[in-house]
Amino acid sequence: MALTTIRLGGVPEHFNLPIHQAIEDGSFASRGVKVEWTTFHGGTGQMTKALRNGEVDACILLTEGIVKDIIGGNESKIISGYINTPLIWGVHTGAKNSLKHHSEVYDKRYAISRFGSGSHLIAAVDANMNERTLKADQFNVIKNLDGALASLQKLESDVFYWEKFTTKPYVDRGLLRRVGDFATPWPCFMIAATNDILEQEPDSIVRMLRTIHDSADKFMQAEDSIPLVAKRYEQKLKDVERWYHATEWAIHGWVSDKMLRSVIHNLKVAGLVEEDVEVPELVWKR
C-alpha cells in the first residue's frame, strides 16, 4: 500500500515523545501514513507561520497561539486536542538580574520567541489576570530558548516565560532563575492542520490522529515512560516524574467549544484579539 505523506511539526520537547515513538515503531506506516517530522525550535509562532506558508501540513501548537492565528487569517483548523492539562510556564530571569519575585515582572522587558508565540501571549494573559497591561515596547524578540539565554545573560531582557520542565536543567545549572510559575487556564496543546490537507487527504488525517491517540494512550500506560523521558531528554528522574503525573494526553479528537470561548475571551481582554472581530470556524468538522 502506498503511504500518504503528512508533514507534521512540533517543538523539541518531551510532550511529543508519543509521536516520535509512533514514527519509530512503524505505527503510522501500519495505517498507511508516512509522517515527516519537523522540529520547530522557535515554538508556536514559528509553526503558525509554517502552516500559513504551506511548509507543513499539521502541527502540535499551543492552544492560545493557534486560536489567535486562525482568527487572524491562518487557513487551518484545530483537528484534535493533544495535551488535556494546562502548561506550567516557568517565569524566569537571568542569573545576574536583580528581579526576585513574580509580582515584580509586569513593568520589565520581556524576551519572547516572536510576536504571537506562547512566550508573548501568555505573558500578556498573565499580566491581564493581575490587572496589568503590557506595552509593545516591553517585548524583545529572541527567536528561541538559546536566544533568551543570551538576552537574559546580557541584561537586554529581564523576564522570560517558557515551559518549566524544559528550562529546569538551565535553572539547575544557574543559567536561569525561576521567580514564579503560571498555569494556562485551558488545555495547553492542540493539533491543527491546513485547510488544504483537510480537503485533499481527510482519511489520511483521521488515520494519523488515531495513531497519535493510540500512541499517547500507550505512553500513559507504559511503566518505562518516565525513565525513557529522563534519558532521552537528559532530565532528572524526579523532575520527569512530577511532569508526567501532572500531564494527560488526549486519546480522542473532541475539542470543547466552551474552552475555546474562554481562550478567545482571555485573548480579547488581554488586547491580543480585537473585541469585535469575527471568529471563523476553529475546529474541523469531520
Question: Mind explaining what this structure looks like?
Answer:
The protein has 286 residues and is an alpha/beta fold. The protein has two domains: 4-86 and 187-269, D-Maltodextrin-Binding Protein, domain 2, CATH 3.40.190; 88-183, D-Maltodextrin-Binding Protein, domain 2. Helices cover 40% and strands 21% of the residues. It has twelve helices and ten strands. The protein has helices at residues 17-24, 27-30, 44-52, 63-71, 118-129, 145-153, 164-172, 195-200, 202-221, 225-232, 237-244, 257-269, and strands spanning 4-10, 33-39, 58-62, 76-83, 88-94, 110-112, 139-141, 159-163, 176-183, 189-194. The chain has a five-stranded mixed beta sheet with strand order 2-1-3-10-4, sandwiched between helices. The protein has a five-stranded mixed beta sheet with strand order 7-6-8-5-9, sandwiched between helices. α1 (17-24) crosses α9 (202-221), α4 (63-71) crosses α12 (257-269) and α10 (225-232) crosses α11 (237-244). It is globular, with a radius of gyration of 19 Å. The relative contact order is 0.20. The model has no long low-confidence stretch (mean pLDDT 96).
Output the structural class. alpha/beta
In the CATH scheme, what's the topology name of the largest domain? D-Maltodextrin-Binding Protein, domain 2
Point out poorly predicted stretches. none
The largest beta-sheet arranges its strands as 2-1-3-10-4
Relevant CATH superfamily of the largest domain: Periplasmic binding protein-like II
Question: What proportion of the residues is helical, as a percent range?
Answer: 40-55%
Oligomer: single chain
Kindly provide the radius of gyration, computed on alpha-carbon positions and rounded to a whole number of angstroms.
19 Å
Q: How many strands appear in the DSSP assignment?
A: 10
Helices and strands, in order, run as: EHHEHEHEEEHEHEHEEHHHHH
Q: What is the second-level CATH architecture of the largest domain?
A: 3-Layer(aba) Sandwich
What would the principal axes of the Cα set say about the shape?
A: globular
